[in-house]
Amino acid sequence: MNPYEYVEAHQHEFLEELKEWLRMPSISTLSQHKPDLLRAAEWARQQLESIGLTRVELFPTAGNPVVYGEWLEAGKNAPTVLIYGHYDVQPADDPSKQWKSKPFEPEIRDGNLYARGATDDKGQTLTQIKAVQSLLAAGQLPVNVKFVIEGEEESGSDHLYPFVEQHLDLLKADVLVVSDTGMMGLDRPSIVVSLRGIVSMEFEVRGPSHDLHSGLYGGMVHNPAQALVEIMAAMHRPDGKVAVPGFYDKVRELSGVERAEIAQNPITVERFKEETGAPQPWGEPNYSMQERAGTRPTFEINGIVGGWTGEGGKTVIPEKAVAKVSCRLVAEQDPVEIFELIQRYLAEITPSTVTSSVRLLHKGMWSLVDTQSLYMQAAVRAFEYGFGKRPIFMREGGSIPIMGFMQEKLNAPVVLMGFGLPDDNLHGPNEKYCLECFARGMKTAIYFLHSLGTRG
Ligand SMILES: [Zn+2]
């Protein structure tokens, strides 16, 4: 039986296994789910063991364990592929109202498997595992394979960073494969070729030492909430560009070829309105919506709070006001450098009537994929085989911070082999994984691994 026939023959069994994994509510941001995370990690460990990997281990960390597995029987001359995935999921939120079926009771409707984690990332991770299983069962795995499946992707990968640093030899590979992104459509296969970096911060503006009566002091004290919004407003120029001096200095401009490629798949105003519900698009001049979202950096207020926000009114001048902000970054911006530029600009524009500070919450590197690498070329052919059409290269606005880090530390190119669809609702209610993507994804992954080993 060849690996493709093996997939066909075991389709049902694979799906049942995925459902089993999806029933574990491994929500990494909520501490009461710790036992579920351990169960989900142990499930992944057993899975890797059962498909015939030669070394499988659960590495404890100060957070959730890292599941590691390897099969190195292809020998020293064959390339080594490191496959990354994650077994933790986002919270389900408000299950009663918005989910049609329960988030941790997987259900198949209209060719889709509905459950939290279905596409992000248990379904996609299992797609890779099953591809390797099928190749091993057929005795046709021509490359060395390593798996790293973490349990903290949805909460910042805090303990994977030191894990990678401490296990550089163990993780050494020629290429990194990640199935944690999406494509444009079943009939529009695409490969993500860039991810944005991120720096997130908390701003604080302080005025008086305590809340003041606005009747007694209003008019002679600079209200910190007002000062904060003045400062926040000064972070953008009226035309939508970020006003922080030096912010764009290191941004790599798009080439004509890149812009032409992006222009092939424009976001229309109608689609924009339908997806967002916002009345009109907004943003940096001279860049299309598609370019703004995937290739340009941003400064975004995620939350702002100060003074009385409870029921009714309270005539008070608050002692302080706070804003949570995150910047999406692109090549070649450095998150720490951007933070320092913002810090300096903040000091410059803060009026002497209040004091201000900004604190770094977390940061992550952007990553750019070399589309000319032989691994990307192999991925292009694999998608063509699995989905019947040559894939388009797509720049995504999101971030997988650990990717840029692993790419740099392991000095290996990345292939983002994403099988999600735009309507998969990852992080939202009614998350799903399209069964066709599962089946075709396995074919694609098999073809990819197979072709890496059989080239000259
Ligand atoms: Zn994910």
Helical percentage: 25-40%
- The CATH architecture of the largest domain comes to 3-Layer(aba) Sandwich
CATH class of the largest domain equals: Alpha Beta
**Number of self-contained structural domains:** 3
How would you describe this structure to a colleague?
Strands 1-2-6-3-7-17 form a 6-stranded mixed sheet, sandwiched between helices. The protein has 3 domains: 282 residues, Aminopeptidase, CATH 3.40.630.10; 121 residues, Alpha-Beta Plaits, CATH 3.30.70.360; 40 residues, no CATH class. It has 15 helices and 18 strands. The mean pLDDT is 94. The protein is of the alpha+beta class and 456 residues long. A hairpin with a 6-residue loop joins strand 1 and strand 2. Helix 4 packs across helix 15. The two termini are 25 Å apart. The site of zinc ion (ZN) has 5 residues, from loops.
Report a brief summary of the structure:
The protein is α+β, with helices and mostly antiparallel strands.
What's the SSE blueprint?
Elements: H1 3-22, H2 34-50, E1 55-59, E2 66-71, E3 80-86, H3 95-98, E4 107-109, E5 112-114, H4 122-137, E6 144-150, H5 160-166, H6 168-171, E7 175-178, E8 190-195, E9 197-206, E10 212-213, H7 214-217, H8 224-233, H9 256-263, H10 269-276, H11 289-295, E11 300-306, E12 316-317, E13 320-329, H12 335-349, E14 355-364, E15 367-368, H13 374-387, E16 392-395, H14 401-410, E17 414-416, E18 432-434, H15 435-454
Parallel strand pairs: 3-6, 3-7, 7-17, 8-16
Antiparallel strand pairs: 1-2, 2-6, 4-5, 5-18, 8-15, 9-13, 9-14, 10-12, 11-13
The protein binds zinc ion (ZN).
